Amino acid sequence: MSEQRTDHVVVVGGGVIGMSVAWRAAAAGHRVRLVDAEPASGASYVAGGMLAPIAEAWPGEEELLELGAASLRQWPTFADELSRAAGLPSGLRREGTLVVGVDSADRAELDNLADYLARLGRTVNRLSSRELRRLEPSLGPAVRGGLEVPGDLAVDNRVALRALRAAATAAGVEFVAAKAKSVRPGAVQLEESTVDCDMVVIAAGAHSGALHPVLRDRIRPVKGEILRLRARATALPPPSRTVRGPVHGRPVYLVPRDDGGLVLGATQYEVGFDTEVTVGGVRDLIADAEQLVPGISEYQLVEAAAGLRPSTDDNLPVLGWLEPGVLAATGHHRGGFLLAPATVDAVLALLRGEEPAAEVKVADPSRWGGQQ
To answer: What pTM does this model have?
Structure first.
C-alpha cells in the first residue's frame, strides 16, 4: 500500500468500472465509499466478458482501438493483482478469439477487417474452414473461413465481479446500498440523505447521464441481450476460444466459461431503459449461433437477460474531470471489462493531480467543447 492519504472518495456505481476504481483507490490509501443499490448488477452482470479490441476494430475508431489495445496489455497484470487481493480467481481466459464467416459477404467483411488491421500494423491470421475446425472442432460446416486473433482475451464477468467485490472489501471500501440522485462537488445526494466527500467518481454506467449536467444527453443506454447455456453430459463441449462472426451480416459471439458454460450475445437496440428480453432477440441469437456451433442445440438454456451498455456518440468512454471535485469514469459502451485497467490507472492519476496516459486523453469530456 502506498503512503496513506486522507482524501475521501465516493464512487457512484458498482459495476466493473466502479468496483475496480474503488478497490484500487482504497489500496492506494484513499478513504472510499461506493454507492450503489445493487453492486455487481446491471450491464456488468450480463456482459460477455470479451477483451477483444482487435476483433472489434472498426474503421474510424482508431483512437478507441489504441485505448483498448493499451488496456488489453494491462489485463494479465491486473488479473494477477486482483486474484491476490481477493484470494479468488480473476476469471481471465487467454485462449484467444476466432472471427468467422458463413457466406461470401461475411468473408469479404473479414478480409476487409484483416486488410484494415494490416494497415495499422496489427496482424491476424487468415484461416481456411479446415484450419478453423482443426483449432475448434465444434465449428459447423457453414463456417467457410475466418481470422485467428491470438492476442485477444476474455474474462468470466461474474467471477471477476466476485473477485472485485472481495478485493474492494479487503482494501477497506465501504459499500452504501442506496441510489444516487445527483452529484456535486463535495457531495452525493441519495434518495434520503447526503454523502459528503472530497472527490466523486461517477461510474454509474447508463444511468450516469442523470447525475451531472455535463453527462446529460451524452450517455445513452443501448440494450443488449444475452443467453447463458451449459453443455449437457451428452453434448459436445463448447469451443475453448471466443468465437465471433458476422452471420449473414449480423454480429454474434459465443464466449466460453470454465464450467462448460457458453454466453451468446450481441443484439443491440436503441430502446431507452428497456431491459426486457424479447422473443425475437432470443430467436436471432440461437439461430445465428447455431450456424457457427451447431452442437449448442443440445445445450441447456440456463438464462436469458438484457443489459444496458452506457454509450456515447463517438463510442469513446468519458474519463476526466467534469468540474473540480467531480470525475467521470463512464460511457464504456461494450468495453467496460476491456477498459477497466486503463480506466483505473487514469482515475488514480487524476486523483493524484497527474496527467493520465496519452491514449486516455481522447476520452476527456473536454472533447465536447468548453472547459471542464
So the answer is: 0.95
